[in-house]
C-alpha cells in the first residue's frame, strides 16, 4: 500500500511539475494553429495563481487577465491604466538592461518577464486596447488619455527590444502600422509612436505605401520642425529601395533579373512622388538642413562631453525623449512650441551644454540630408533639383560649413574608416551624409555651378576666355542669385579641408567622390583648370605616391578623380610630369595602378583617350613638347603596354562576376579596341591577344570570355538610356560607334579579321552557350 501511495504521489508530483510546461505548450500550440488556447486570459485563475510563484511569472498572467477584463469598451479606463503601469514597471527594467549592456540578440533567460508577457498574449492585448476605439461602431467610446497611450506604446517598444519575433509580428499587421501613423498627429504621443514605428519599419519585408497613410499631407504639415526631422528617420526606410546586399558588390545579372520581376514604379519610387506632392515639404527640409544652431559661450570647453555619450545617443528621437522627460519633470510640459518647433524654442534649451545643442541639431540634419539625397537620386531628380536651388539649400549649407559641418575636430576622435561596419558618431555621420549630398547634387547636373560663388563663376569665365573656348552652357545659364555667397563657395571649401585631411581618414574617400562628381559628364577644360589652380592634382599624386595610403577605397576614389581631372587636358599632364619627376616616383605610381586594375581602370581609360586625342594635335607645339617629355604618355604610347592592360582587363571579369563596380573594366577594354578600330589596327590587337593567350597556355579562354561579356554588354546597355549617355559623355565617342564596334567584334563571319570568332580555334570555341547561364 505504501508503495502504491508512493507511486501515486510520485505521479502527482510529476503531473504538477509538467503542468506549467503543459500550459505553455498549449498556449504555443494555440498561437501557432489558432486552435484551443491562444492567450493566458483563457486559463482559469486558480490554476494561474497556483503556478505563478513556482514558474516565477511575477504575476504577469494574472495582471493580463485583470487587464483583459477591465479594458472592455465603456469600462473605467483609469483601472486599465493602473494595470498597464504595473505591467510596465515589470518590463521596463529588462529593456533598460538590454540597451545599456549592448546585447545584440534577445534571450528568454535575460528577459523572463517580457517573454512571459508575450507568451500569455500581452502584445496582442495591448494592440487590441490601443486600436479598440477605432474598431468600435459605438459613438460614445471613452477617449483614451495621452498617458495611457504613451504607456501602452512604451510596453510594446520594450517587448520589441527584449523578445525575439515581436517586432516582426507587429510589422506584419498593416492595420496596426497604419494606425500608429494616425497617433503621430498627437504631439504628446509623437515620440513614443515614432520610436516604435522606426523599429517596425526596420524589419518589414515590404515597404509601406505612404499613400495608404490616412491624410498624409495634413499629417506631415501638422508636424513642427522637430517632429518633421524625426519623421525623416522613418521616411528614409520608405523611400529607399530594399537592400539587395552591398550595392556595388551585387552582380549585374542578379540586379537586371530583379528589375524585370519588380513592378515599375517600385513602392519606394511611388513614395518619393507622394512626398514631393506634399505642399511645402521640400522647402521645410531645406530650412531644417540650413538653420543655424543658436550661439552660446564656452563652446570649446564643452566639446569633450560628446565623447562620453554620443555612442549610445544614436539618434535624435532618443535625445528628444530625454528632453521631454526633463521638461515634464520641470513642469514645463504645458509650454507650447512655436511653428519652428525646435529645442531652441524651449526654456530648457538655454540650460543645455552647447555641445549637446550642436549634436542634437546635427542628429536632425543627418536624417534630413539623407532624405534629400535619396530624392536627388530618384526619378524626379530634376524636379527636386529645381526646388533645392529655389530654396537655396547649397548657399545655406555653405554658410554652416565652418561653424557646424566641418568645425574643428577633437584630437581624440577615432576616424571612421570606409570599410568598417561601425556605429558612427553623429558628427561623423553628418559629415559623410553632407559629402554624399554634394556628390548626388553635382553628378551630371548643370546645377553643380551653384557650389561656387559669384567671383568663382567669373574665374571660370576668364579661364574660357583666355583659352579662347566658349563658356559651358550650364555656366552661362546659372542663376547668380542662387549661388554661394561669402569669400569661398562650397567646392573651394571642400578642396581646402580635403588637403588637410589625415592620411588614414576615410573622409578622403567621400571628399574625392564629391569633387569627382563635379567633373563628371562632358569634360570641361575650365572646370579642370579651376581645380588645377588650387593644387588638387599635386595633392592627389601625393596621396597615391608619397602618403603611404593603403586603403583600396580611398585609392580608387583618387584614381577616378585624377582621371576626370586630367582627361584631354594637356596642362594636367604637364603638371603630372613636373610632380612625378623621377623614375622611382613613376614606378611607384605604376605599382599603385597595377596593384588593382578594378580600382584604377578609369584612370587607364583617361590616359588612353587623352593620348589618342593628343596624337591628333601634333600641330600644337605645347602638345608635342608634353608628348615627348611626359613619362605617363610615353609609357602608354607603347603598344605592348596597352596590350598588357587590355589582356588583364578582360581576364579579371566574367559575366557571372560583373558588378556596378567592375563593369568599368569591360568598358575600358572596349575603349582601347574602339580607338584601335578607328585607326585600322583592330586586327593587329586581336592577333596580339591570341598570341598572349597561347603564351599563357590558355587557348580560347580569353576570347570566349570576352565574347560572352560583349553579348552581356548588348543586353545590359542597349536598354539603358542613362548608361549610354554616360559612356558617350565620358569618352567623347558617339554611342553609335560603341554599338558598331561591339557588333563587329561579335560577328559570326569567321573570315572577318575584326570578329572574335576568327581568333578562336575550332577545338576551343565555346560561343553558343547562353551567356546568362550561371
From TrEMBL:
InterPro entries tied to this protein: TRPC4AP (IPR022162)
Gene Ontology CC, one term: Cul4A-RING E3 ubiquitin ligase complex
Pfam families associated with the record: DUF3689 (PF12463)
Molecular function as annotated in GO: phosphatase binding
A single GO BP: ubiquitin-dependent protein catabolic process
Name by which UniProt lists this protein: Transient receptor potential cation channel, subfamily C, member 4 associated protein a
Annotated organism of origin: Pygocentrus nattereri
Lineage: Eukaryota, Metazoa, Chordata, Craniata, Vertebrata
Gene name of this polypeptide: TRPC4AP
Amino acid at each position: 500500500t505504501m508503495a502504491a501511495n508512493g507511486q501515486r504521489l510520485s505521479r502527482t508530483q510529476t503531473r504538477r511539475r509538467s503542468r506549467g510546461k503543459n500550459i505553455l505548450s498549449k498556449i504555443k500550440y494555440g498561437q501557432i494553429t489558432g486552435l484551443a488556447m491562444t492567450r493566458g486570459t483563457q486559463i482559469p485563475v486558480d490554476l494561474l495563481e497556483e503556478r505563478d510563484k513556482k514558474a516565477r511569472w511575477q504575476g504577469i498572467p494574472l495582471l493580463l487577465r485583470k487587464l483583459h477584463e477591465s479594458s472592455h469598451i465603456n469600462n473605467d479606463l483609469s483601472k486599465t491604466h493602473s494595470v498597464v503601469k504595473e505591467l510596465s514597471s515589470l518590463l521596463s527594467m529588462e529593456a533598460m538592461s538590454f540597451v545599456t549592456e549592448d546585447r545584440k540578440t534577445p534571450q528568454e533567460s535575460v528577459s523572463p518577464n517580457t517573454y512571459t508577457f508575450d507568451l500569455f498574449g500581452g502584445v496582442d492585448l495591448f494592440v487590441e486596447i490601443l486600436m479598440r476605439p477605432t474598431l468600435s461602431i459605438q459613438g460614445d467610446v471613452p477617449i483614451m488619455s495621452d498617458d495611457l497611450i504613451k504607456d501602452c506604446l512604451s510596453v510594446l517598444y520594450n517587448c520589441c527590444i527584449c523578445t525575439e519575433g515581436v517586432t516582426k509580428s507587429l510589422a506584419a499587421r498593416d492595420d496596426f502600422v497604419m494606425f500608429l501613423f494616425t497617433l503621430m498627429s498627437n504631439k504628446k504621443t509623437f515620440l513614443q509612436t515614432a520610436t516604435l514605428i522606426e523599429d517596425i519599419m526596420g524589419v518589414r519585408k515590404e515597404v509601406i505605401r505612404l499613400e495608404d497613410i490616412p491624410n498624409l499631407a495634413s499629417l506631415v504639415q501638422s508636424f513642427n520642425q522637430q517632429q518633421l526631422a524625426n519623421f525623416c528617420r522613418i521616411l528614409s526606410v520608405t523611400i529607399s529601395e530594399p537592400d539587395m546586399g552591398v550595392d556595388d558588390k551585387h552582380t549585374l545579372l542578379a540586379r537586371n533579373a530583379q528589375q524585370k520581376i519588380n513592378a515599375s514604379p517600385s513602392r519606394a519610387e511611388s513614395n518619393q512622388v507622394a512626398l514631393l506632392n506634399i505642399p511645402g515639404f521640400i522647402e521645410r527640409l531645406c530650412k531644417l538642413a540650413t538653420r543655424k544652431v543658436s550661439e552660446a559661450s564656452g563652446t570649446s570647453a564643452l566639446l569633450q562631453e560628446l565623447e562620453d555619450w554620443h555612442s549610445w545617443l544614436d539618434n535624435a528621437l532618443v535625445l528628444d525623449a530625454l528632453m521631454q522627460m526633463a521638461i515634464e519633470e520641470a513642469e514645463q510640459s504645458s509650454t507650447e512650441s512655436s511653428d519652428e518647433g525646435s529645442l531652441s524654442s524651449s526654456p530648457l534649451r538655454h540650460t543645455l551644454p552647447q555641445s549637446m545643442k550642436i549634436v542634437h541639431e546635427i542628429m536632425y540634419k543627418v536624417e534630413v540630408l539623407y532624405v534629400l539625397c535619396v530624392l536627388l537620386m530618384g526619378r524626379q531628380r530634376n524636379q527636386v533639383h529645381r526646388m533645392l536651388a529655389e530654396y537655396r539649400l547649397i548657399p545655406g549649407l555653405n554658410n554652416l560649413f565652418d561653424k557646424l559641418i566641418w568645425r574643428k575636430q577633437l584630437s581624440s576622435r577615432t576616424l571612421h574608416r570606409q570599410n568598417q561596419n561601425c556605429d558612427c558618431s553623429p558628427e561623423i555621420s553628418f559629415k559623410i551624409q553632407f559629402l554624399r549630398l554634394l556628390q548626388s547634387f553635382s553628378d551630371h547636373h548643370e546645377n553643380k555651378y551653384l557650389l561656387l560663388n559669384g567671383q568663382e563663376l567669373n574665374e571660370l569665365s576668364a579661364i574660357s576666355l583666355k583659352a579662347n573656348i566658349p563658356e559651358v552652357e550650364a555656366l552661362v545659364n546659372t542663376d547668380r542669385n542662387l549661388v554661394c555667397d561669402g569669400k569661398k563657395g562650397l567646392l573651394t571649401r571642400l578642396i581646402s579641408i580635403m588637403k588637410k585631411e589625415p592620411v588614414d581618414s576615410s573622409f578622403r574617400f567621400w571628399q574625392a567622390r564629391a569633387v569627382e562628381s563635379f567633373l563628371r559628364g562632358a569634360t570641361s577644360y575650365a572646370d579642370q583648370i579651376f581645380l588645377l589652380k588650387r593644387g588638387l592634382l599635386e595633392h592627389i599624386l601625393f596621396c597615391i605616391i608619397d602618403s603611404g595610403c593603403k586603403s583600396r577605397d580611398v585609392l580608387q576614389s583618387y584614381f577616378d578623380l585624377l582621371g576626370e581631372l586630367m582627361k584631354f587636358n594637356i596642362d594636367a599632364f604637364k603638371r603630372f610630369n613636373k610632380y612625378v619627376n623621377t623614375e622611382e616616383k613613376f614606378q611607384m605610381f605604376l605599382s599603385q595602378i597595377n596593384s588593382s586594375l578594378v580600382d584604377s581602370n578609369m584612370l587607364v581609360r583617361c590616359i588612353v583617350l587623352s593620348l589618342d586625342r593628343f596624337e591628333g594635335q601634333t600641330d600644337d607645339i605645347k602638345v608635342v613638347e608634353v608628348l615627348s617629355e611626359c613619362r605617363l604618355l610615353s609609357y602608354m604610347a607603347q603598344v605592348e603596354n596597352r596590350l598588357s592592360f587590355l589582356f588583364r582587363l578582360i581576364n579579371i571579369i566574367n559575366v557571372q562576376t560583373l558588378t556596378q563596380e567592375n563593369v568599368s573594366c569591360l568598358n575600358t577594354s572596349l575603349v582601347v579596341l574602339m580607338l584601335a578600330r578607328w585607326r585600322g589596327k583592330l586586327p593587329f590587337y586581336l592577333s596580339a591577344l591570341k598570341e598572349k593567350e597561347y603564351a599563357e597556355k590558355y587557348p580560347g579562354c580569353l576570347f570566349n570570355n570576352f565574347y560572352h561579356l560583349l553579348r552581356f554588354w548588348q543586353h545590359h546597355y542597349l536598354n539603358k538610356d542613362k548608361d549610354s549617355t554616360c559612356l558617350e559623355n565620358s569618352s567623347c565617342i558617339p554611342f553609335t560607334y560603341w554599338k558598331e564596334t561591339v557588333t563587329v567584334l561579335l560577328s559570326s563571319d569567321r573570315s572577318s579579321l575584326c570578329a572574335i570568332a576568327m581568333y578562336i580555334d575550332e577545338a576551343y570555341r565555346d560561343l553558343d552557350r547562353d551567356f546568362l547561364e550561371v
